[in-house]
What does this fold into?
Amino acid sequence: MSSEISGTTAASRPARRELANAIRALSMDAVQAANSGHPGMPMGMADIAEVLWNDYVKHNPANPEWFDRDRFVLSNGHGSMLLYSVLHLTGYPLTMDEIRNFRQLGSRTAGHPEREAELGIESTTGPLGQGIANAVGMALAEKSLAATFNQPGFDIVDHRTWVFTGDGCLMEGISHEACSLAGTLKLGKLICLYDDNGISIDGEVAGWFTDDTVKRFEAYGWQVIADVDGHDGNAIAAAIDAAQGDTERPSLICCKTVIGFGSPGKRGTAGSHGAPLGADEIEATRAELGWDSPPFEIPEAILSAWDARERGADCEKEWTDLYANYRVTHPELAAEFDRRMHGELPQGWREIAESAIAEVDAAAADKATRQASLIALNAFAPTLPELIGGSADLTGSNLTRHDGSIDITGDDAAGNYINFGVREFAMSAICNGLGLHGGLTPYCGTFLTFSDYARNALRMASLMRLQNIFVYTHDSIGLGEDGPTHQPVEHTASLRLIPNMRVWRPCDTVETAVAWRSAIEYRDGPTCLILSRQGLPFQSRDKNQIENIAKGAYILRDAGGTPDIIFVATGSELALAVEAAERLGEEGVAARVVSMPSTNVFDLQSEEYREEVLPGKVTARVIIEAGVTAGWSRFAGSAGAIIGMDCFGQSAPAPKLFDYYGFSVDNVVSVARQVISAN
Ligand SMILES: Cc1ncc(C[n+]2csc(CCOP(=O)(O)OP(=O)(O)O)c2C)c(N)n1
Ligand SMILES: [Mg+2]
It folds into this structure.
């Protein structure tokens, strides 16, 4: 789109500044009404937003989820009122009542933007730095889908990713990880507008942020457009034109702005960052801006100049026509594109998955579960071209690269494998962006112990109810000699605590395949697959037991009748429970073994099923997991015992460590005997 404003004459159209002032007024008034919030950024970036949304963003407010729309991410999410204002003004179904109810219970205008695709909120932002990484993921998704689906004369995937960022995002380390990779991958349709206002919460950033941002981004391989006056519409438009002109490199537009622009008493100071301006200051600001309308009222001329519905409908229609022709000329690609746009699993998916699981069962192989994960990936990936993934420089350890993996490079995005480099946090947030974009199902791997580096991206995936599959190998002291820096103990337990997250710690090849299937089918949140480095024995099961794996926990071995004791174990410790149960069986003790690969999923089962697996009356229970005991007491009960480790491991061969920390058949049997006699 050109920087000309089509369909209106200069005479009838309010000046850019007046249009931008609508954002300023709505923002300061909503923050004032809520008695909390951040007016400074929306007031400072209003002129940039006005130019961008009125002249450049390709979108249709009447159909916010139109697939080929431009994506927009507000990485400096504290400026949420800017986004809400723009969405309201351009004609999204975000009403003035919602703006009046900014930050109130039940409103759709949360303190920080929360992903709501039907409203045009593309991502949940606020944790600084992650939005820009999400945007990198979205731009990568666009480039990858374009490389897969576009045909000569049919650029059916052809949109930009815009991102607003502040000093905070650029100070955060994740912006380095993500932007460095964006340069290497040549994400030329990613355009970042930097709110270079010299202010963050503690005051003037000159005291703590003196990087040469221009040189920094140039070093990443970005096009940098420096020193743009962020309050001059023509300068902003010229910069955006230049950014759009470079389709090889991502662009950073550095806009000099004044935080709290328009507020005579607070502009240019941290005082406008995160607090209401106050009634008197708002009055003074109204006078300064020449804004006469009362709070939450927008003059008709301004509202209609902002209204993007007609232009949006035209944009979408153009695409719909193109796509209709594509359907005719490329029917097979179009059918696949339709499926991917709608996020549907391929036809016959269930049967394919079932037969893959049956094959793994028939092979009855003893394998490390990381190897089992690769087997599952190889079985599932050929039917799921939407799978896109990679590893943070641990491909050979995480075994995330299946036989159909093809590297995505700067010059060729048609592949499905991303070498993320040593960038766990960005990898995870970029995968969130891939998922947010749609059309792709992301997965990514690293050592479980480094999930901490990525932690907040996992939390955001959970909060957004976003599918994202985290492949975490080397899951315990079982990794051995690399020692306690690399041996997770608290990670599995702590990942289970995140709402909407599903954590699986499978014990063998079959459980791993079922866990992968569940991860692929779970569309309303992320999954962690917790996998062993070391080999684990295959467990035999009947058909019913295989089906029950998907319920998170099931009876793997039973003695008939009411058990004298129940073992509950996960992953590498399951085999110990089986052996201990056999030994106790020889002594006439009726021991049940419950395999519990996913506590989260088991918690979702009916009370009846949970009671069937863990009958309340059987209080003699022993839990076994090579990790912290936290979280297990609800299954152990007050009369049970937990064999875990509430300490760090040590550097030594794995079998020695398991023995040392009590993960031996002898110890399990002896603890079980104590529990039985105490019950
Ligand atoms: C990861 C993270 N750390 C800290 C915060 C709290 N916080 C919110 S805004 C902000 C300052 C951001 O400065 P800048 O991006 O320059 O915003 P401006 O004041 O210019 O609007 C901080 C520290 C946060 N939201 N996320
Ligand atoms: Mg700032």
About this structure: The chain has 27 helices and 20 strands.
